C-alpha cells in the first residue's frame, strides 16, 4: 500500500467510526451496523495493520444482541445523553471539565483553517465525537490528494489522544456494570488502536514541549477532580478585585457540580 492508499484507507476508517458514533435515529441504522460495520472495520483494520481482531469480534457479538433500532437508540442515550451518562460524547469535556471550553475552540480553529464553517442548523457542538472523526476523515482524504491545511496526525496527537483512554475506560466500566448490549465499547477500542497508531507529535522546542505536556496533565487532573472550594474562592477573589458581582458563583463545590450536571443534561437534550 502506497502513501496515498494508506491515507485513503485511514479516511474510510475514520468515516466509518464517525457514522457509528452518530445518534442512531435514522431508519435502518441498527440493521446497517449489524450487517456491515464489523466487516468494513475488519477489512480496513487489516489494510492498515491495526490489531483490532478481538474488538471487532466483540462488536459483532454486541450488535447481535441489539434486537432493533429502538434498543440501539436507548443504548446510545443511556451511555451518552442521559443526565447521569457514564461517558461524554462531547469529548472536550474530558480535557476541559465542562461543555464548550477551550478544547472546543481549538477544534473550531482547526476546522476554520480547513475552510469548514459551522452550519447554524446543526445541533452538535464541534467536539461531538462524530464531528471530530468526520473532520479527521476529511483531513486524510485531503492528504491522499495533496497537503491538508491541518496535519491529521498532529490533530490526533493534540486534541484526540489526550482523552481517548478515558473515553474507552468509561465505556468499559459501563459495559462491566450493565448487562445490556454495548457496541460502543468495542468501537472505542478500535478507535483507540487507530489513534495510538496514527497520532504524531508535532515538532516542538523541547522547553515548549515540556510546558505543553504539563498543561495537558494539569487539564486532565482538573477535569477529573472537578471544581473545588478553593477554585470557587479564587474565582470570587478575582471578581472582587475587578469590582464585579459574585452573586452568581455557587456557594459550594457540591452546588457547582449540581449546576454543571443540570447544564449538561439540558445541552444533551437540546
TrEMBL record:
Keywords: Chaperone. It comes from Ramlibacter montanisoli. This is Molecular chaperone TorD family protein. Pfam families: Nitrate_red_del. SUPFAM superfamilies: TorD-like.
Amino acid at each position: 500500500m502506497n502513501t496515498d492508499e494508506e491515507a485513503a484507507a485511514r479516511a474510510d476508517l475514520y468515516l466509518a467510526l464517525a457514522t457509528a458514533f452518530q445518534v442512531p435515529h435514522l431508519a435502518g441504522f441498527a440493521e446497517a451496523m449489524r450487517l456491515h460495520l464489523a466487516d468494513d472495520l475488519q477489512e480496513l483494520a487489516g489494510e492498515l495493520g491495526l490489531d483490532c481482531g478481538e474488538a471487532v469480534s466483540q462488536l459483532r457479538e454486541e450488535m447481535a444482541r441489539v434486537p432493533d433500532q429502538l434498543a440501539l437508540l436507548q443504548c446510545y442515550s443511556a451511555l451518552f445523553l442521559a443526565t447521569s451518562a457514564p461517558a461524554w460524547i462531547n469529548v472536550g469535556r474530558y480535557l476541559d471539565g465542562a461543555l464548550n471550553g477551550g478544547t472546543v475552540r481549538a477544534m473550531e480553529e482547526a476546522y476554520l483553517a480547513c475552510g469548514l464553517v459551522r452550519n447554524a442548523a446543526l445541533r452538535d457542538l464541534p467536539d461531538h465525537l462524530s464531528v471530530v472523526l468526520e473532520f479527521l476523515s476529511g483531513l486524510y482524504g485531503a492528504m491522499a490528494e495533496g497537503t491538508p491545511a491541518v496535519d491529521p496526525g498532529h490533530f490526533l496527537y493534540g486534541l484526540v489522544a489526550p482523552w481517548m483512554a478515558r473515553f474507552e475506560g468509561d465505556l468499559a466500566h459501563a459495559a462491566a456494570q450493565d448487562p445490556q448490549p454495548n457496541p460502543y465499547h468495542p468501537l472505542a477500542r478500535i478507535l483507540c488502536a487507530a489513534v495510538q497508531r496514527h497520532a504524531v507529535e508535532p515538532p516542538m522546542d523541547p522547553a515548549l514541549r515540556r510546558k505543553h505536556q504539563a498543561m495537558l496533565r494539569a487539564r486532565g487532573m482538573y477535569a477529573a477532580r472537578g471544581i473545588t472550594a478553593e477554585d470557587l474562592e479564587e474565582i470570587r477573589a478575582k471578581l472582587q478585585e475587578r469590582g464585579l458581582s459574585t452573586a452568581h458563583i455557587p456557594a459550594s463545590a457540591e452546588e457547582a457540580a449540581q449546576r454543571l450536571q443540570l447544564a449538561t443534561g439540558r445541552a444533551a437534550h437540546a
